[in-house]
Design brief:
By secondary structure, the chain is α/β, with parallel strands linked by helices. The protein folds into two domains: about 5-60 and about 75-140, Rossmann fold, CATH 3.40.50; about 145-285 and about 315-335, NAD(P)-binding Rossmann-like Domain (Rossmann fold). It is built from 14 helices and eleven strands. The chain has helices at about 5, 50-70, 85-90, 90-105, 120-125, 145-165, 180-190, 205-215, 265-275, 280-285, 285-295, 300-310, 310-325, 330-349; strands at about 10-20, 25-30, 35-45, 75-80, 110, 175, 195-200, 215-220, 230-235, 250-255, 275-280. The strands form two sheets. It has a six-stranded parallel sheet, with helices on both faces. Strands 1-2-4-3-5 form a five-stranded mixed sheet, with helices on both faces. The longest helix is centred in the first third of the chain and has 21 residues, at about 50-70. The protein is globular and about 55 Å long. The chain starts with a helix and ends with a helix. About 50% of the residues are buried. The chain binds nicotinamide-adenine-dinucleotide. Nicotinamide-adenine-dinucleotide binds near residues 224 and 238.
């Protein structure tokens, strides 16, 4: 494995372990050009070290673009712990990880991701100040999912405007894949605005909760991607939009919270050819990052929501850029972020 070559565009990649605590972690700092690198800690029993490295590099880079496009003074980074969260997550493991973060002197700030939760962050907080998304008891903002959902709703309104010339979602058929923390709140917001909301989730309790709280419809999780609809909102897994699934889509718009929805960036071109408007995931789901990042300056709900409301506006700028540059919206989103970084770099000189 040629680690230096793979990490060529990264400022720093740190490998650390603590045998007694069972810790094996990789922290990737992609960029601190706009500020400290912020990104969650993923705890997963990766099949190999190679897979863990691949994941942390990919996730750290996308955090750079997400923070830059969201207008934050933050860079991109991510951490992975190679462990099974259900079995291996101990106080010692979390605190040993937090000590690694502390040793980076604020270049990287950690938060929640797959396999970690608010309680884990509170544990880490005992060893380091460089953690956000902690519980309100520690001065944090708690679960950001309702705020992420508000950002997705703002993004969907912009997509509907771009496609149909009118931003109202009332009467639009919107299918949500995943009725978890984000999907549930999104279903509520859209149903409240009069959209025809359909949810799909293999977890039938999650489906039942959305049905009983918001009166939404349901469809089978196994065939959700083929649902005929105006908007398909992937709010579960990554990689669901790929060369195998794109020919089967029957939607006009793909706009949801899931990270890394495209199999590869070229799937953005395939969506364009299929005349399906793709709202780049890292623009759409920035609400969570915006919220936890606000803890760094003393979390304020109104300030957070004002920034989250701008997600729809940013998307319209990206659609315009994609049109002018004749590229996919996925490429335009990265370009949009890079332009902000370049402008600010010029300012510093
Ligand atoms: P979650 O774990 O609470 O919910 C995910 C839901 O998807 C679960 O209910 C699960 O049963 C369901 N699911 C799994 N496989 C499915 C399938 N094949 N079809 C339909 N549903 C399926 O997670 P979440 O916090 O709601 O996050 C959803 C997505 O949004 C993730 O990709 C996450 O990385 C991303 N995201 C979340 C936030 C946030 O604030 N929570 C912020 C940014 C991005």
């Amino acid at each position: 494995m040629d680690v230096f070559e793979r990490a060529r565009h990264y400022e720093r990649v740190v490998f650390a372990q603590d045998e007694a605590a069972g810790l094996r972690t990789i922290v990737a700092i992609h960029s601190t050009r706009l500020g400290p690198a912020l990104g969650g800690c993923r705890i997963q029993p990766y099949a190999s070290e190679d897979e863990a490295l691949e994941d942390v590099l990919r996730l750290a880079e996308s955090m750079t673009w997400k923070a830059a496009a969201a207008g934050l003074d933050l860079g991109g980074g991510k951490a992975v712990i190679i462990a099974d969260p259900a079995r291996d997550k101990t106080e010692a493991l979390l605190r040993a990880f937090a000590r690694v973060i502390e040793s980076l002197d604020g270049r990287y700030i950690t938060s929640v991701d797959v396999g970690s939760n608010v309680d884990d962050l509170d544990e880490m907080r005992r060893e380091t100040d460089y953690v956000v998304g902690v519980s309100p008891a520690y001065g944090g903002s708690g679960d950001p999912s309702p705020i992420t959902a508000a950002g997705v709703a703002s993004a969907i309104r912009s997509c509907v405007y771009q496609t149909f010339g009118d931003a109202t979602v009332a009467g639009r058929r919107i299918v949500i894949q995943g009725a978890g923390k984000v999907g549930y709140h999104l279903a509520g917001l859209l149903a409240h605005e009069g959209a025809e909301v359909i949810v799909a989730d293999p977890n039938l309790d999650a489906v039942a909760r959305a049905v009983s709280d918001f009166g939404v419809e349901t469809t089978a999780a196994g065939s959700v991607l083929e649902s005929e609809c105006d908007v398909l909102a992937p709010c579960a897994l990554g990689g669901v939009i790929n060369e195998e699934t794109i020919p089967r889509l029957k939607c006009r718009i793909v706009c949801g919270s899931a990270n890394n929805q495209l199999g590869t960036i070229t799937d953005g071109d395939a969506l364009r050819r299929a005349e399906i408007l793709y709202a780049p995931d890292f623009i759409v789901n920035a609400g969570g990052l915006i919220s936890v990042a606000d803890e760094l300056v003393g979390w304020n709900h109104d300030r957070v929501m004002a920034r989250v409301d701008k997600i729809g506006r940013t998307l319209l700028d990206i659609f315009h850029l994609a049109h002018v540059e004749n590229v996919s919206t996925a490429e335009a989103a990265v370009e949009h972020a890079k332009r902000r970084m370049a402008t600010l770099a010029a300012l510093n000189r």
